[in-house]
Amino acid sequence: MFRYLVRRFLQMIMVFIATTFIVYSLMYWTGGDPIQALAGEKPVSDLQRAQLVEKYGLDQPFLQRYWNYLSDLLQWPPNFGTTLTGRSINDILSDAWPVTMQLATIAILFTIIFGITAGVIAGIRRGSIFDNSTLVLTLLVIGIPSVVLAPLSQYLFTIQWKIFPTTASGVGGWERWSDPSLWFELLLPGIVLGSLSVATAMRLTRASVSENLRADFVRTARSKGMPGRRVIGIHVLRNSLIPIVTFLGVELGSLMAGAIVTEGVFNVPGVGYQLNRALKTEDTPLVIGIVSVLVIVFLVANLIVDLLYAVLDPRIRYE
Amino acid sequence: MQVRRLAAWAALPLAVTLGLSACGKSGGSDSGSANPNGVVSIGIAEPKHLIPSNTAETSGSQVLAALFAPLVDFDEANKPFEVAAQEISTTDNKTWTIKLKDGWTFHNGEPVTADSYINAWNYAAYGPNAQDNNYFFDKVEGYKDLNPADANTKPTATALTGLKKVDDKTFTVTLNAPFSEFKALLGYTAFYPLPNAAFESATASPLVLAKSYEDAPIGNGPFKIKGSWQHDAQVEVEKYDAFAGTKPTIGGALFKIYQNSDAEYADLQANNLDVVKQIPTASLSTATGDLGDRYQTSPASTLQVLAFPTFDKRFEKPEVRKAISMAIDREEIANKVFQGSQKAAYSFVSPVVAGYRDKTCGAACEFNPTEAKKQYEAAGGPKSLNITYNTDGGHQEWVDATCNQLKANLGVECVGTPEPKFADLLTKVKAKKDVGMFRMGWVMDYPSMENYLGPLYSTGGSSNYYGYSNPTFDNLLKEGSAAATQDEAIKKYQEAEDILAKDMPVLPLRFGQNVFGHSTNVKDVHIDLFNRVDLNKIQIAG
């Protein structure tokens, strides 16, 4: 186990350096002129340009710039630098991440509660009315992209029927985790975000449960006279969870990436919101900073998923 | 967005009834009559900076307009009148004496003195500070010494020689050349004063701005900041009790920060937000239904034109340019493509400046396809045209529409040529590459006719990309800048504008409009020349 972890950790470092390098070079070669982007359509004076070039080291060769960036990043605490408007990226990230994590928590809980429960019921009662109606419903939800679902639900649930607040407000940061008003503001965006994965989670669970119900070990358990609840609760569910945990792990990673559309529509000051703004204003340092952290989040999420396999299925061992 | 619009249509009857019932129970605040302590919420984007000399966009200047009081403001006729200044006088338009009103203080209690202005302006004009509004000071004597031509050399001076303190409340500004519109220039964000507390040391040279100043700017205005600037969330301001000027009729303002204008508009629809300064284009078609008479428009300072590279043989003759102008139906594009969010333009200066006259362009801007074709053929206009535009500003639709009109009315080929950025377009024009006609936009820096003429059309003007040069025009501008009174100056500028109508280096197409909306909680919402909500006029609805 320990050796496995060390190996994974070394792999993660390699992947991290490779991905940041790719992102950095992509932003560098396609980024256009960041100084002109900052000034909009107004002309930039030569002096202003010279100042900004010096401040951000834009005249240094590419590898030198990447090396500077990486060495700032690999110290402790990491220094992500400043945006083109002079704000500390560390501050922006530490405000945005907690909000996105809050949103992702709501979304993933929603997915687990609705998706998996409905999937289990549909799997047990295959062919029933419940099974067929949820099938149609999930097809419908899968078919609606979030660019439609988010504004539509905002219009219906916040403007027409004033059930939820229209947009999230205020700053992010860890201290707001204990603030019930922010949880409430994030409820509708969280559900919108989660409903997209509910459908997939349900279909996966259903297939997995109905397959396991026909497995040999279930027949054995039943013939031994084990009560039905115990058969499903212990034997079927535990074995059915493996594909679902994989799915949820990857899903959690992409939820952390910030839902650009949903966060934009509901004005949630999370990672997707910042990423969108950074791309719009061509704020290269901010884009790279956000993506670097995203890479780490994905790597960690994948590691946790792999470790969970061993917990769920004793046959899987890591050496 | 398509579906969103559909949904909005379907819900329109309901929204109207909601709006009506909301009128019935209006007066959402606790008291029955107009509430002088009420707080108004206004949607903005995240400001780039909150430093007067570094704030050139409307979100930041909206916040600064609450925190600072300008030397001059503009009346109904868009002429400047004194606010923080007691008197601004000159005898030769070159040396201006500015006398400040007594009893004015910054929010930290510091008195506003001549030094507050001199320090702020020196900081702004000092090249290495790289302030966005640096160029506003290029007319002041000594600017060149602070901004050497070679960007990598150190400036030889740290203060403008043109700024001289007379006494605590008086200072003089000496310009490089006479400029009659200098008073109007002083109304801009760049000319606010800064307290000593804004600098690490107020006696240092060059001045260094305190790092924390921007988090909670201290100004001399009717409102002071409450707490600090909460990035990506909000900035809140409250009434400054010791304000010596005209007291506002509201207790404070909450500037809510949105990244997405659709989210901002949704909050207005839900009555959570009081003012949206610019309604997103996607919602324009339904906004009248959503808001009723709370949907409003007012003239803005922007001007969209179609420019000609006059050095290009094909567009040399003014007759060709005029014929193209006559073949464009401006009204149709303004109404169909922009849904009334922009207005057809028949003059070269915007209606928001003093001296504006309607239809100065005359017959050459009237839509007249038959005459256009006749003149175009007589003048030997080119068989194929193209319009270069930048793709990042939503210009494709109107460029295509314009091309279609030219195709139909002149019988020529016409295509739009996209460039990724406006800067790319300008680089090509500057290098005299073949771009054909190209789009240009202009946002006013200061409310004066001169600002729509000098930089754009004078020989060697800072934004004269068309190679237009007319000595008579240049002379008229010079005479205007040296004129003894504003009225005389305007007369000269109007004569200069008439020359443009004859030469047509560009075709005026459209003026911008502020398309704004407000909630049922507020009334008397006005958007000023600089696209800011006028906080002195807005009131809580009774």
Automatic annotation (TrEMBL), chain A:
Keywords: Cell membrane, Membrane, Transmembrane, Transmembrane helix, Transport. Its main location: membrane. The keyword Cell membrane applies. It comes from Catellatospora coxensis. InterPro entries: BPD_transp_1_N, MetI-like, MetI-like_sf. The chain crosses the membrane at residues 12-30, 103-124, 136-157, 182-204, 240-266, 286-312. It comes from the Bacteria. This is ABC transporter permease.
Automatic annotation (TrEMBL), chain B:
Keywords: Signal. It comes from the Bacteria. One of its GO terms (biological process) is peptide transport. Pfam families: SBP_bac_5. One of its GO terms (cellular component) is periplasmic space. Residues 90-463 form the Solute-binding protein family domain. InterPro entries: Peptide/Ni-bd, SBP_5, SBP_5_dom. Residues 1-22 form the signal peptide. GO terms for molecular function: peptide transmembrane transporter activity. PANTHER family: ABC TRANSPORTER SUBSTRATE-BINDING PROTEIN, PERIPLASMIC BINDING COMPONENT OF ABC TRANSPORTER. This is Peptide ABC transporter substrate-binding protein. It comes from Catellatospora coxensis.
